[in-house]
Write a structure and sequence with these properties.
Number of strands: 7
Enzyme class: transferase
Structural class: alpha+beta
Protein name: diguanylate cyclase
Shape: flat
Catalytic activity: 2 GTP = 3',3'-c-di-GMP + 2 diphosphate
Largest sheet: 5 strands, mixed
Keywords: Coiled coil
Bound molecules: guanosine-5'-triphosphate
EC number: 2.7.7.65
Distance between the termini: 158 Å
Number of helices: 14
Strand order of the largest sheet: 2-3-1-6-7
Radius of gyration: 54 Å
CATH architecture of the largest domain: 2-Layer Sandwich
CATH topology of the largest domain: Alpha-Beta Plaits
Helix content: over 70%
CATH class of the largest domain: Alpha Beta
Oligomer: single chain
């Protein structure tokens, strides 16, 4: 009995212990689950922080977050964790490679920035220090971003300094060259009288010390002057067309009204003719019908006076018609005279313009366009009549030193004097043009080979003997001349090139001489 009592009490004790162990286990489970839940929450947050690095990883992490949210399906998430782990490893390697590459790019960029000469010294030092910093590897993106920001700052500062100095852009040799070319080009354009002073000033400016601003302003001025000219030309042609139109309208009105008058007169004339015919017929009838001579006389007298009256109306009508016609013709003649006058003045203007377009404004010699025309014409004559034709190209020696020592205005005057002297030293049939700058081209037809040297030397001597006096200093200006004769089957362009090459030889052989390409 005792034994069974003991057993019962031991079982009760064991039950009690089991109960408390169960409670303790539940407590442990709860605590474990609480920590697991915290861990899962943490994984969820961590996965969110990884978002945006890799699309596949993002998708997998989103799925994982969803699974982990549902506590019961944690087991299903376990295999996915494995693949996410692999992805994370590869992502890490990729990120590190990318960071290394970015560091390399930053080093290259900073090298380029360092080569910008205009950067201030202080900044250059900072950049140097930064360059050393860049030799250390990046561990995270957060190492990269501030470096990138620093780079942008350097760049910004250099740009800022450059912009501050932009008012004083350096003038480069090719800007000076452009200015000189613009000066030469505007010398070759014909401007209106009221624009010429402005153009002269502009030319002087372009040939002096120039800044970029002045060069741009000059381009703007030239463009405005040209546009002004175009507008002027346009309005002149418009005026002429309007005048022409007005005159034609008057003529058309006159023709119309005389046509209408004519029609009306024709109707009246027909009426009158009918009446006259009727009177004559009546007279015929009277002659047949009436026997009594007195009555015949009365009736005939009445018919004749009606006929007379009809005839005088017809005469008056014709007179009026003639007057109207005369008036119309007079007014048309007046209008036609007006148009002719208008057209003549327009033609003259065009002709003047054409002529001016072919003249070099500074020297009043033929310009390059005129030279090309004349060359063609002389070449045609040479082919047709088999007469000799020479081209001589002449260039003033050391002309730059005239400009440099005495100024461009003196240079211009010198060009004018030489141009006149060249023109005066040639025959009527010979031709000289300013080819550009200080270069002139002579076309010499009908000159034999044995006379060409003599002719060109005479020209050269003539220029050499001009007593130029600049700033009270006696200056001798000399020419170098290269010449060539058009050969059989040779184009005029080829002859020109040979003459140019001869000029080059004259220059390199010491200047103040002629060289003839034979
Ligand atoms: N005053 C003035 N100078 C001009 C004009 N056109 C060109 N020039 C100048 O002519 C000079 C030509 O100089 P270069 O081509 O160096 O020749 P150069 O000094 O004559 O020397 P060589 O030809 O070698 O003997 C430049 O200084 C031009 O500015 C112009 O219309 N007026």
């Amino acid at each position: 009995m005792n034994d069974s009592n003991n057993t019962v009490s031991q079982i009760a004790l064991l039950k009690q212990k089991l109960g408390s162990a169960k409670i303790a286990l539940e407590g442990i489970n709860n605590e474990h689950n609480g920590k697991l839940e915290q861990l899962i929450h943490f994984i969820g947050q961590l996965s969110l922080a990884c978002k945006g690095q890799n699309l596949e990883l993002d998708n997998k992490l989103a799925k994982l977050r969803h699974r982990l949210h549902n506590f019961d399906s944690i087991d299903e998430a376990l295999p996915e964790l494995l693949s996410i782990e692999k992805l994370l490893q590869s992502q890490y390697r990729q990120t590190m490679t990318q960071l290394e590459e970015s560091r390399g790019s930053l080093s290259t960029l900073i090298g380029q920035i360092q080569r910008i000469n205009s950067a201030p010294e202080k900044l250059k030092k900072e950049i140097n220090y930064f360059k050393q910093e860049l030799t250390k590897p990046f561990h995270t993106v957060w190492d990269y971003i501030p470096k990138m920001e620093a780079m942008i700052r350097f760049y910004e500062q250099i740009l800022h300094d450059e912009l501050l100095q932009s008012d004083h852009y350096e003038i480069l040799p090719h800007h000076v060259q452009l200015a000189r070319e613009l000066a030469t080009e505007i010398s070759e354009i014909e401007f209106r009288k009221d624009q010429r002073d402005q153009v002269l000033v502009l030319k002087e400016v372009l040939q002096g010390d120039i800044s970029l601003d002045i060069l741009l302003e000059s381009y703007h001025t030239v463009l405005s002057l040209l546009l002004e000219n175009i507008a002027h030309e346009k309005s002149a042609s418009q005026d002429f067309l309007y005048a022409l139109n007005d005159a034609l309208t008057v003529v058309r009105d006159v023709v119309n009204s005389s046509h209408n008058n004519n029609q009306r007169s024709n109707q009246i004339k027909q009426q009158l003719n009918k009446e006259i015919n009727l009177r004559v017929n009546n007279a015929d009838c009277i002659l047949v019908d009436v026997n009594n001579s007195t009555e015949l006389k009365v009736q005939l007298t009445s018919q004749l006076s009606a006929l007379k009256e009809a005839l005088s109306r017809k005469e008056a009508l014709e007179q009026r018609e003639q007057n109207i016609l005369k008036k119309s013709i007079d007014s048309m003649r007046k209008e036609l005279n007006n148009i002719t006058q208008e057209a003549n003045s327009y033609k003259e203007k065009l002709f003047e313009h054409q002529k001016l377009n072919l003249l070099d404004p500074l020297t009043q010699l033929a310009n390059r366009t005129a030279l090309e025309d004349r060359m063609e014409q002389e070449y045609r004559n040479h082919i047709r009549f088999k007469t000799p034709l020479w081209i001589a190209i002449t260039d003033i020696d050391h002309f730059k030193s005239v400009n440099d020592s005495f100024g461009h205005t003196t240079g211009d005057k010198t060009l004018q004097v030489i141009a006149m002297a060249l023109k005066n030293s040639l025959r009527e049939s010979e031709f000289v043009a300013r080819y550009g700058g200080e270069e002139f081209v002579l076309l010499l037809p009908d000159v034999n080979e044995e006379h060409i040297s003599q002719l060109l030397n005479r020209v050269r001597e003539k220029i050499k003997n001009i007593p130029f006096r600049f700033k009270n200093q006696r200056i001798t200006v000399t020419l170098s001349i290269g010449a060539a004769q058009v050969m059989d089957h040779e184009s005029i362009e080829d002859t020109f090139e040979r003459a140019d090459a001869a000029l080059y030889r004259a220059k390199s052989n010491g200047r103040d001489r002629i060289v003839i390409d034979l």
